[in-house]
Design brief:
By secondary structure, this protein is mostly helical. It has 2 domains: 7-40 and 50-119, Helix Hairpins, CATH 1.10.287.990; 129-233, 3-Layer(bab) Sandwich (minor pseudopilin epsh fold), CATH 3.55.40.20. The protein contains 10 helices and 3 strands; from the N terminus they run αααααααβββααα. The chain has helices at residues 6-21, 52-74, 78-81, 85-90, 97-119, 129-139, 142-155, 202-205, 209-216, 222-233, and strands spanning 160-166, 172-178, 189-195. It has a 3-stranded antiparallel β-sheet. The chain starts with 5 loop residues before the first helix and ends in a 6-residue tail after the last helix.
Length: 239
Amino acid sequence: MLLIDRRTFVSGAVVLAANAKVPRAFAQAPSGPFTLDPLPYAANKNEPHIDAQTMEIHHGRHHAAYVNNLNAAASQHSAIANMPLHQLLGKIADLPENARTAVRNNGGGHANHTMFWQIMGGAGGEPSGDLKAAIDRDLGGFAKFQENFNAAGTRVFGSGWVFVTVTRDGALALVTRPNQDTPLMEGKRVLMGNDVWEHAYYLKYQNRRAEYLKAWWNVLDWDKIAGRYAAAKAETLTI
């Protein structure tokens, strides 16, 4: 009789569920104004903290599905097709009611994940320069910032994100949002954020979200985040 250990069974079940629920969007992407950029590094770049299989499924299935669904909505509503993503999300309340949910879920998912891939692929450590000074000033120093960020991510009920927002004056704030909501919907800008949907970590960490949140700091690229901080102050940061 074939014996399967519990971890292998759970991991296999999650992969099968992901394959069943998330369309192979990359294989049948409808044309439209929104595109899925390739990962800016190899899928195994964040090993061992985030496994390559999670990265591949997360980017190539989940994120791709948000892009495809957003393009499908854009084909029905010219208001969606004719605006850059950050402007579209900032004007979500002005959209036709029957388009709003598609933009909230899929436009938000597209923006959140685009930011997410950009800030990873690094070696962790700590920020420096103007960004470090802003963290010290607004978030209580790096150690306190990490502690509060991880605690906020742990408290998110169900699925969602924990973000750091940034103003054009360089002020930082820690916020959480449910599902694929984003501070862009409130006219704010996102410096960085972590995805606490289970699909972001379940293959490796199962229900240990706190462990995933702690490990995630090891893959951050602080040069990229510092670049986003400078862009926010220059008013050129979009998503």
